[in-house]
Amino acid sequence: MAVADPIARLVKELARLPGIGEKTAQRLAFHVLAAGPEYAQALAEAVIGVVRDVRCCSRCQTLTDTDPCGICTDTRRDPRILCVVEGVPDLVAIERTHEYKGRYHVLHGALSPLDGVGPADLKIRELLVRLETDPTDEVIVATNPDVEGEATALYLARLLKPTGVKVTRIAQGVPMGGDLEYADQVTLARAMAGRREL
């Protein structure tokens, strides 16, 4: 690369981010340079602050700068309903709906034996401890509808059923605005199985 070493170093580090190729990293690096030293300083401080200040909530395992997090301490939420998600982006997606009023538990991944991810690599033990101490009526398993998410959902269902807590799975099927003719067979089968009365 025919640029100054500091720029090449920044491009190299930015390209290590997921979804960022070398061209995008180069464009971002030149944007930071053009934006000026104040922007670069604010960006650097934000990155350092995230690494320094963000940790897992001791109750729900979400990423937070306060412990327990704001969701766990919100008295307007139903503490007896727990939604289990794979990651923090899933929690954020559910929160954007403004429909769910319970609490969460973040697993930080999904079971994937091929990738060497087993139950001990997820926050499952913390979930079991939480269920022993916090009275819970329902656990909603909201893992992704892929092979790893399904395996995780089945594992959790088998693990939690003996505790007596109601274990449910989020509905799956045809997305809003989707065409039936383009939906795959599994999606259509789940949509038919999960049908409800109008």
One letter per element, helices H and strands E, the order comes to HHHEEHEHEHEHEH
Strand pairing plus helix content: what structural class? alpha/beta
Q: How many beta-strand runs?
A: 6
Domain count: the total is 2
CATH class of the largest domain: Alpha Beta
**Which percent bin holds the helix content?**
40-55%
Residue stretches low in confidence (pLDDT < 50, at least 5 long) are: none
| Strands side by side in the biggest sheet | 4-3-5-6
> How is the biggest beta sheet arranged?
4 strands, parallel
Radius of gyration: 21 Å
CATH topology tier name of the largest domain = Dna Topoisomerase Vi A Subunit, Chain: A, domain 2
Specify the number of helices.
8
Molecular shape: globular
Instruction: Please state the average pLDDT score.
Output: 92
Q: From the 3D coordinates, which CATH architecture of the largest domain would you assign?
A: 3-Layer(aba) Sandwich
The proportion of strand residues reads 5-15%
N- and C-termini, Cα separation: 62 Å
